[in-house]
Specification:
The complex is a heterodimer of chains A (about 325) and B (about 325). By secondary structure, chain A is α/β, with parallel strands linked by helices. Chain A has helices at about 50-60, 80-85, 110-120, 125-140, 155-165, 185-200, 215-220, 235-240, 245-255, 315-320, and strands at about 5-15, 25-35, 40-45, 65-70, 75, 90-95, 175, 205-210, 220-225, 230-235, 305, 310-315. Chain A is globular. Chain B is built from eleven helices and twelve strands. The chains are: A alpha/beta (about 325), B alpha/beta (about 325).
């Protein structure tokens, strides 16, 4: 297989809470390995506070990682400073959840989309304008909307503008942090389709950060499931949705409401809440909520164990085929 | 069917937008809630579902909004005509409400226990503090809060989102109301916590024979919880039927579009269909059918005549000129 576009090894991001030597350290991301290949979409799912957004920001140095390596096209970038990152910024992009917060309210749509081209001095003025028109057309904006301001657009339209602005630089890798969570269902479908179209056109890779299992299933080729700063399972879409192994993945999937009537589903109800990342349980971090916990759980490493070529899980009991999977 | 407890007839609410202008937020909204029934109100943001709910309890500010038409009959008594004082006897006692974000409903500077005791004593001035405290502990037990005696002494910020929503449910159900209005009760929660809270609501509803008006934008939650579903679009009811009919034989093009644009966690799917365009703002509603700007089956007549909500088959109401003829 080809070299991954993004090769992330042992990534950690820690935050010190408060000041002084005794200030506790919050391990938001605590050792994650992940490969993203060209043109694919990797979904990163988990519940709020599990560190998925922190991870997304850390890998493209928006919030530099504390430890670990990030190799982009074979070049180590984890330790890059702002100046070193600058030329890479047009290839490594980020889409935020709230499109309104990412668009300057005082600039028109046209100017907003043109700004990245100006910043990187790409082409002549005329070429830039043509590019902006093409990309705005591609995301489905009409000519008469070009001179509008963000507040005049609906949420879905704003997210299209954000996508246009990201895509105009022809990036290679985009971290999409809950890009459709703030949108209504009917509009969400439009934006998801647009993201798919943009991907097949530009051959860009996405890291799609989301808490919504159903959109992940729609958009992603591979899925990483995160719990309290660590990956608990990684696999192809088929692996994760059809043959989930980790008890947390199973519970997460069974908790998603399905829009069908009269279908009785086996639901795994988890006890309690996610523990504070300041005091994660020893060993397997899911052990205090796991319905199948056993004595050894507090001593396991929590590293991913490869089950087959595409599928890996952190639970040694789930990884072994003879394990009680029920 | 069992006894009707709430009957809303042709409800119309207007909002004041300037000294002279009023905008119609909802119009011609009619529905019934029977004893023990769970009625789901679904629709996208701005469709009027929360306005409907808040109007039932008369929670909208009278300076800026006005119930311009219609009746809200609760056991035959018209809530629109009641004075504020009389309304207070209804709120919390007969009809209570829980909101999306529990943190905004709980006072951050008072302990959970004090807030609950205050509520009991506001309704019943003769109840001793001790008795109210005991009752509150009992209610917290009912909503499965672990070690309720300790939690009573906690401040809201010390509880997790799921726990806070449980406290809200405990408070809302403490007077054993006949109707519980739940406005997006689980939207702010993670899926595994949402599953817990939904199960709790259903279990309490069965124990207490409470009817629930469940407002949500999540079709999965509706499919799971509701007996009857009312679909709203741009301030109007567009379809109203039992949950099986809505999901298996939807007639209104909006309902169909909405269901077709859902991503699903339980199966892979081809390209999502989506509803073109966006909801028009209230001030720019089209002539005729309000959905005509986005409807795939729109015809000339749809742009002239506003359709009425018609019963196209027993207990299946649809607001569409074309569906009425079926």
């Amino acid at each position: 297989m080809a070299e991954p576009l993004m090769k992330i090894r042992g990534l950690k991001k820690q935050f010190r809470i408060g000041h002084g030597k005794k200030a506790p350290v919050l391990r938001a991301v605590d050792g994650i390995d992940l490969d993203v290949y060209t043109g694919e979409t990797v979904g990163l799912v988990g519940e709020s506070g599990c560190g998925k957004s922190t991870f997304g920001k850390a890998i493209i140095n928006l919030n530099p990682p504390t430890e670990g390596s990030v190799a982009y096209q074979g070049t180590e970038i984890a330790h890059y400073n702002t100046r070193q990152m600058r030329p890479l910024r047009k290839e490594l992009q980020f889409i935020f959840q709230d499109p309104y917060a990412s668009l300057d309210p005082r600039r028109t749509i046209f100017d907003l989309v043109k700004a990245p081209l100006d910043a990187f001095r790409i082409g002549t003025e005329q070429e830039r304008e043509e590019q902006v028109e093409t990309i705005l057309g591609f995301v489905g904006m009409d000519q008469f909307q070009f001179r509008k301001f963000p507040h005049e657009l609906s949420g879905g339209q704003r997210q299209r503008v954000v996508i246009a602005r990201t895509m105009v630089l022809k990036p290679k890798f985009i971290v999409c942090d809950e890009p459709v969570s703030a949108l209504d269902v009917s509009v969400r479908a439009q934006v998801l389709n647009l993201m798919k179209d943009a991907q097949s056109k530009l051959n860009v890779s996405y890291l799609f950060v989301s808490h919504d299992m159903s959109t992940v299933r729609y958009l992603c080729d591979k899925v990483a499931v995160m719990y309290l700063g660590r990956l608990v399972e990684f696999g192809s879409r088929h692996d994760i949705f059809e043959h989930p192994l980790h008890p947390y993945t199973k519970a997460l999937l069974s908790a998603v409401p399905i829009p069908d009537v009269g279908v009785k589903r086996e639901r795994i109800l988890l006890e309690g809440d996610v523990p504070s990342p300041l005091h994660p349980p020893a060993g397997c971090r899911f052990s205090n909520r796991c319905p199948y916990r056993q004595e050894g759980c507090s001593h396991i490493s929590g590293d991913l164990i490869q089950v087959n070529e595409t599928h890996a899980v952190s639970c040694p009991y789930a990884a072994r085929p003879e394990a009680p999977t029920k | 069917m069992s006894e009707v407890i709430l009957e809303v007839e042709n409800l119309q609410v207007k909002f004041r937008v300037s000294k002279r202008d009023m905008l119609t937020a909802i119009q011609d909204v009619s529905f019934r809630v029977h004893k023990k029934e769970i009625l789901g109100i679904v629709g996208e943001s701005g469709c009027g579902k929360s306005v409907t709910a808040n109007t039932i309890l008369r929670l909208l500010p009278s300076q800026t909004s006005q119930i311009s038409n219609g009746k809200i009959l609760f056991h035959g008594q018209d809530l629109v005509q009641l004075s504020n004082k009389e309304m207070r006897q209804i709120r919390g006692d007969k009809i209570s409400m829980i909101f999306q974000e529990p943190m905004t409903s709980l006072n951050p500077v008072y302990r959970i226990g004090d807030q609950m005791v205050e509520m009991y004593r506001a309704k019943n001035k003769h109840m001793s503090k001790k008795e109210a405290w005991q009752k509150a502990i009992h209610m917290l037990e009912m909503v499965d809060i672990p070690s309720p005696e300790q939690r009573m002494k906690d401040y809201p910020h010390q509880l997790s989102g799921g726990m806070r929503q449980r406290v809200m449910i405990a408070m809302a159900l403490s007077a054993r109301p006949e109707l519980l209005i739940a406005d997006e009760p689980t939207t702010a929660l993670d899926v595994t916590i949402q599953a817990q809270v939904l199960q709790l609501m259903k279990q309490l509803q069965e124990e207490m024979d409470t009817a629930i008006l469940l407002i949500t934008h999540d079709m999965g939650v509706v499919a799971e919880m509701a007996d009857t579903v009312m679909v709203m679009y741009a301030g109007e009811v567009v379809e109203y039927a039992d949950v099986t009919t809505i999901f298996n034989r939807p007639l209104h093009p909006y309902t169909r579009g909405l269901l077709a644009s859902l991503t699903r966690a339980d199966r892979d799917m081809g390209r999502l269909s989506s509803i073109e365009g966006t909801v028009p703002p209230l001030s720019q509603m089209p002539e005729g059918c309000r959905f005509n700007t986005r409807c795939p089956d729109c015809q000339a007549a749809c742009k002239e005549k506003a359709p009425a909500l018609l019963e196209v088959e027993p207990n299946h109401m649809v607001r569409c000129l074309r569906c009425g003829k079926v």
